[in-house]
Amino acid sequence: MTTQWRAIGILACTQIVSWGSLYYAFSILAPSIQRELGWSPTLVFGAYSWSLLIAGLVATPIGILLDRHGGQMVMGAGSVVCAIGFFLLSESRSPAAYVTAWTILGLAMGLTLYEAAFATINRRFASAGRQAISTLTLFAGFASTIFWPLTQALNMSVGWRDSYLWFGALQLLICLPLHLLLGREQPLSRCPVAVAQRGHTLAEAVRHPAFWKLAMAFSANIFVFSALSVHLIPLLHGLGHSARVAILVAMLIGPMQVAGRILERTVARDTAPQTVGKFCFSTLPAALIAVLWFGTQAWAVAVFCILYGLSNGIITIVRGTLPQAMFGSENYGAISGALAGPSLLAKASGPIIAAWVLGQGGTPTLLLGVLFGVAVASVSLYFAAIRGEAPRAITNSA
C-alpha cells in the first residue's frame, strides 16, 4: 500500500469517528440532554448551532494552516481539542459550561471534518485528488449508519454524559494516533506540476461572481441537510412513525450515501464536477416532495431517505472537487475554507431555525415546506454559478 493510500485509510477511520460523534450523535442525545437539564430546545439546539457557526468562522484560517503545514499536526491537534470539548460537555451542568463545551467542539469540527481532510488529500494527490476524495467519502458515508444505533445503545445503557465521555476517549485513543501517522506532505508549491500552472489566490477567487453564487448554493443546500440531520428522527415521529421505525428508515441514508459515491466513482468518474453537481442539487427537492405529499406512509419516507442519501453522498464529493476544478490546487485549503464558511454558517442556523419553527407550533409539514423552498433556491443558485464561464487556472509565466 502506498503512503498516499494509507493516508486514505487513516482518514476514513477518523472521519467516521469524528462525523459520528460530533454531528450524527447529537440528534439522538439532544432529547436526553433536554429532559435531564430542563432547558428549552432553543438553548439545547442553539449551543450546537453555535458550534457550527464557530466552525464556519475558523474555516478559512484553518484552510491556510493546512496549505502551509498539512494535515498531520492540524488534524492531530483537532483530535485533542475534540476530546477536551467532549469531556467538558459530559460534565456540563450550567448553560455557560454547555455553550463553552460546544464552542470548543466547533473549533474541533473545523480542524477534523471534511474540509480539513480534503485539504490534506489535495496536498498529497494533486490532480488525482478527485479519486482520493471519492474513496474517502465512500467509507466515511457509514458514519451515520454506525453512530446512530451505537449512540442509541450507549444512551440507553450509560446515558448522554458517559456517551460523550466515551466519544472523547475515542478521539484520544483512535483519531489522535491515526492523525499523527499521516506524516508530512510536500507543499504543492514545491511540486513540478505547480510550476506549469498556478491556481488562483484566495483574493482572485473571491472576486469572481461564480465564487459567491456557488457559496450561496452550497449554503442553501447544506441548510436543508443540517436541519434534517438534527431533526429528522423527531420529524418522522411527528408524522406518525414510531421512534423505532424512524431510526430504521433513517439508517437507509448512510448506505445510500455510499451508493451515491460508488455511482460517482464509476458511472460519473469522467464527468465534470459541475455536471455531477446538477444531479445532486436537483435530487434534494425531489426527495422533499415525496415526504411532503406522502409523509405518513413508510414507503414515502424510505424514498425520501434514499434520494436524500444519494444527494448528500454525492454533493460531499462535489464540494471537495469543484474548488480545485474551478480555482486550482495551489491555494485549495484557503479557497475551499472560504467557500465552506457561509455553508457552515448555514449549517449552524439550520437546526436552530427548524427548532424555532417546531417550537412555535409549526407542523412537520410546514417545516418540510420551508425546507423545500430553500432547496429550490439552492438549485437556482447552483445553475446560475455554473452557467457562466468557470474561472480558469492561471498560467505561470515563469
Gist of the model:
The chain has 398 residues and is mainly α. 83% of the residues lie in helices and 1% in strands.
**Global shape:** globular
How many individual helices?
A: 16
Q: Radius of gyration, rounded?
A: 20 Å
Give a quick account of the main beta sheet: strands, pairing sense, barrel closure.
2 strands, antiparallel
* Unreliable residue runs: 188-196, 393-398
Residues in β-strands, percent: under 5%
Structural class: mainly alpha
Order of helices and strands: HHHHHHHHEHHHHHHHHE
Mean pLDDT: 84
Helix content: over 70%
Distance between the termini: 36 Å
Number of strands: 2
Order of strands in the sheet with the most strands? 1-2
Descriptive report:
This protein has 16 helices and 2 strands. The longest helix has 38 residues, at 143-180. The model is unreliable at 188-196 and 393-398 (pLDDT under 50). The chain is globular. 83% of the residues lie in helices and 1% in strands. The protein is mostly helical and 398 residues long. The chain has helices at residues 3-37, 41-69, 71-90, 95-112, 114-125, 129-140, 143-180, 192-196, 202-206, 209-238, 243-250, 253-266, 273-294, 298-327, 332-359, 364-387; strands spanning 197-198, 394-395.
